[in-house]
Amino acid sequence: MQCIDAVVAGAGIWGCTVARRLAEAGKRVLVVDRRPVVGGNVRCETDAETGIEIHLYGSHIFHTHIPEVWDFVNRFVKFNGYQHKVLARYRGKTYFLPLGLALLNKFFGVELTPGEVAEFMKDEAHSSAVFDAFFRGYTSKQWGRAPEEIDPSIIKRVPVRSNYDTNYFNDYNQGIPLTGYNSLFDRLLDHPSISVKLSCELRLDAGVFKIGGDVLPAVPVYYSGPLDALFGYRFGHLPWRSLRFETEWMDVPDYQGTSVVNYTEAEVPYTRIHEFKHYHPENRSVMEARRTVVMREYPCDWKPGDEPYYPIDCEESRALLARYREAAAGVSGLVVGGRLGGYRYFDMDRSVEAALTLPL
Ligand SMILES: Cc1cc2nc3c(=O)[nH]c(=O)nc-3n(C[C@H](O)[C@H](O)[C@H](O)COP(=O)(O)OP(=O)(O)OC[C@H]3O[C@@H](n4cnc5c(N)ncnc54)[C@H](O)[C@@H]3O)c2cc1C
Question: Is the distance from CB of 345 to CB of 229 less than 8 angstroms?
Answer without folding.
Answer: no
